[in-house]
Design a protein that fits this description.
Radius of gyration: 18 Å
Strand order of the largest sheet: 2-1-3-4
Order of helices and strands: HEHEHEHHEHHHHHH
Largest sheet: 4 strands, parallel
Structural class: alpha/beta
Shape: globular
Strand content: 5-15%
Length: about 230
Amino acid sequence: MVARRRTGTGDHRGTPVEALPHRTLYGYESGPDAPIRAMERALARIGDAVTLVLVEGPSDQIALETAAAVRGRDLEAERIVIVPIGGAHAIGRFLTGLGPPGARVRLAGLCDLCEEEIFRRALVANRVGSPRTRADMEHLGFYVCVDDLEDELIRAVGSAEIEALFDSHGDLRAFRSLQRQPEWRGREPEAQIRRFLGSGARRKLRYARLLVEAAIARDRLPRPLDALLAAL
């Protein structure tokens, strides 16, 4: 987990991530089947866990683990496992597989705004609780990003600072190329950034870490991440 490694380091040879702009963070899965393999790796660690934090995918896992590491948390020592469940629609099946409520570890989670109702129904159906409002969800340890975690981080860091990150990590030229494309020319910078981050799985994973670090450096960690960490 990120908490076991120094924040800002790259692969096992000690090469800084910043010097490897086109490589995925060491220790995380990449490729077309990355979500499945990331979930399997997390599930292999839950036997001794006291808390499972359910997130939709690997980028959410990286963001949360990075935030914990920068804040000085050792999630492994605290027996907290972040589980990318492979999309919001998998939460019902995942909770059912955990067994009766009394036999479960403590649960928490993070989801996108458009998936809030899916999470809420699954929590009710699996007797985790009876949340009716977002405040009820948070009382159970489940937090909602608006519209999603990428949007939260883009707003927190700001487009100018993100472009500076692109520049320092060798991605500004590619971003400028996207901005010149007819369908993206003249669009809001935030929309362009969102599209750019989502245009490659490796890029999305790398910037999950980089944007969280930038947000914390500016004391602007998005509330859903901040509140979830505080609740763990």
